[in-house]
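To assess whether ligand presence alters the predicted conformation, the chain was also submitted together with thiamine diphosphate. Input:
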Amino acid sequence: MPESGLTPELMKEMYYVMALSRALDDRLWVLNRQGRAPTVYSSNGHEATQVGSAFALRRGEDWIVPYYRDMALVLAWGMTAREVMLHFFAKAEDPNSGGRQMMAHWGSGRLHVLSTGAVVATQDAHAAGLALASKILKDGRVSVCYFGDGSTSQGEFHEALNFAAVHKLPVIFFNENNGYAISVPLSKQTVVQDISARAAAYGIPGIMVDGSDPVKVYEVTKAAADRARRGEGPTLIEAKTYRFVPHSSEDDDRAYRSREEVQEHKKHDPVITFAERLLKDKILTEADKKAMAAKIKQVVDDATTYADKAALPDPSTLGQYVYGGALA
Ligand SMILES: Cc1ncc(C[n+]2csc(CCOP(=O)(O)OP(=O)(O)O)c2C)c(N)n1
């Protein structure tokens, strides 16, 4: 067992969440193409990055500040498949926003998921603010915000890192670097190709990690969370990852990246490679894997049927939750 405390049981659970997220994601694309679900934003390809980091934190107790790419993250954090589907169908029972927010804009008071802002990088400043509150309240919580590589060109990214570093706030800035901001490659965003290098400008650690390996992601996140809880301040983590599908269901990625490039990355598909590793290490058996796949199919079917049949928000409630009235 690694020093970080990652047990075989937890690794199995990690794999289950990664595979569940992928299956839900696949279903969402089908529903979208059938005209039944609006826009899909995928965590497809980012599962190891998101699940590995979530498992290293106090799930449901610390704060996460996600962005639209983070379905596997919120599933690992405790959101159910039904809740995810209710959100994508914009139903009244959706715990994220009661069907009011854009698709994949997560939020849960119950689980300590800060409501997602659609303007990229604003979540970095929100996370610094949450961490300032934790420091004042001495509640021992760490705030972790997640964001793409493109968003680091925004001023808020730099402002948040600087403020958090100056005040030694218990926050982790977690970059999911998939090399693109929709059609814009990282090389057109910045000449510095490693986002983690930017940490030096703010005097905080910048850690780069292979985002296709959930165990490595777990370990660096755990170290950053321990450092934050010791009062030593923020860490910038950069997980190198890749999205296997277009930016969203409204995008056609054939316009800006070759099929060969996508296929090359798929050789390191984290859902497949992690299963292979667990089988090789005898943490998972073929029978376990088969049983998990059957359970996942049943969970995804149940979530789809449940959300499909659920009621739409009552138009008379339109003004609720705009400036107050916490959701679940
Ligand atoms: C300030 C701002 N500019 C533009 C947009 C439109 N937009 C939404 S997602 C996105 C791409 C962001 O890419 P990146 O941060 O790399 O994350 P990824 O989607 O690749 O995970 C853009 C430009 C926005 N939401 N906010």
